[in-house]
Records
---
Amino acid sequence: MKIVSVRDYDDMSRKAANIISAQVILEPACTLGLATGTTPIGCYKQLIKWYEKGDVDFAEVSTYNLDEYRGLTHSDPQSYHYFMRDVFFDHINIDLARTHVPDGSNPDAEAACAEYDRIVREAGYVDLQLLGIGRNGHIGFNEPDEVFSKGTHCVDLTPSTIEANSRLFERAEDVPRQAYTMGVQTIMQARRILILASGSDKAQAVHDMCYGPVTPNVPASILQLHTNCIVVADEAALELCPKA
Ligand code: F6R
């Protein structure tokens, strides 16, 4: 794991955007694994700015998102389909047909997950996977568990994740209780992983991810075993880690 320590959220966002745009410049037809949540928004904003300046071109890029709430239609403003268009895809020249998000509107969990696994597998997995980290060490919606998950599957969200996500919903009871998520094994197939963390509420998770034992109880800890994983974290998120 390569840990890049940055000042704050804006610095993290620019560094992450630099890594992603370098990937796209070097391999215009690359595959990117993308995340939602608060953490990558600044990175997406920076990429949009560089796209507008003509510095980066997404015409040939394909994207594969990590997860989606079960039971939300693609046009639901709380869905990750909507989020990705709203914060990123509608502002760049990506071909929407090349963007992929698990189909939360399909109530048949087994079929929806198997279909997404097929899509990601046939794409040959991703060149660069962008991740955020949950306060409990989750990646995607892979929550702490007894075993590491494999392919895309349906999960029951933990009370802590429901609580963390409730800030984005009008009422806590509106937060979906289930989601479809890429599994840990699928995430580990990415050729390169870029995980971002900002803020002291992520400090314990970042410490355990980088310095704790590799355990499904902290799903992100498996990234220690990935041969090409970059952690870009700000000072607050690194406050429990040994100083470099
Ligand atoms: C989102 C995702 C989640 C988030 C994590 C952190 O697609 O996969 O694992 O990355 O919950 O969320 P934020 O960035 O909102 O703190």
---
Amino acid sequence: MIILAIESSCDDTSAAVIQDGAVLSNVTANQTVHEAYGGVVPEVASRAHQENIVPVVQQALSVAGVQSRDLSAIAFTRGPGLIGSLIVGVSFAKGLALRLGIPMIEVDHMQAHVLAHFAEDPKPEFPFLCLTVSGGHTQIVKVLDPGNMEILGTTLDDAAGEAFDKTGKLLGLPYPAGPHIDRLAKSGTARFPFPKPKIDGLNFSFSGLKTAIRYFLERNRKADPTFIEDNLEDICRSVQDRIISILMDKLEQAASLTRIKEIAIAGGVSANSGLRSALQELGAELGWKTYIPDFQYCTDNAGMIGVTAYFKLLKGDFVGHDVSPNARLKF
Ligand code: KG4
Ligand code: ZN
């Protein structure tokens, strides 16, 4: 069974070919055009998807050595995401499915981040917990089986990736700032104490941290105009360590409450080197089996869409041509 998967929920246009659950190709075109605006501009993203989608799909087929007539089904991200971006992927999938006379499979982007772990070995065993941290979401998910996931905790305001990106904006770093903060933090020391929010249960909050960082920078720049430049690495390290400690605390609580020891991280922020080592360290201490995705499966990619679609294909879970994208899709 060969699936062509399309991902176009935000600012990455991606296509992948999956054969019997194994990823044969995973091609992503990143849209650098948004850097100039300090964030994703929805209309610009939608237009860039329109330009990228045909070459990206062609490359995914060619890397996999597959012709379009070999395809068994087409999978696409139905949501959540930017509506103008989703429309491009969904319309493309419909057009190709119609021409080839093959079925379509809709995929929830957040479930796909979680199931990205099935693109690689070793694969988590059910039930497992997944901390999904991206630009738009922060979730602790209990995964009972591929089609049965429960959100145990989520953010009450900003997402973890947003905390990185908004901090980066205050520091004058390019968008998305997560990878830049990660790189700078490596040679920094966490000597600036940023507050830890007191939120009950397994939910998160990052907006207080964002405000604290803004005031901290304003205060220090008044006294010393080159404060940011002179302390950039240490500021990055302090912020990054705080974001990681907020995430790891709740993950530890979730593991203890559910008594689950299969623990995964997913989403764009799971590419963060500090978070990756924090998970390994805490996992070794608490006897967890930890799962950290390969970089290509952290940020948005169609490989994860295809792997998720394969689980649905096995159940015959297809959709008709009346399907429409849903920017606020929830599972
Ligand atoms: O999953 P993703 O590609 O897109 C969404 O679905 O949102 O996540 C993008 C987010 C951005 O906020 C970006 O800054 C963050 O992931 N990110 C990182 C790193 N790489 C990407 N954050 C921290 N450290 C990184 N190395
Ligand atoms: Zn994502």
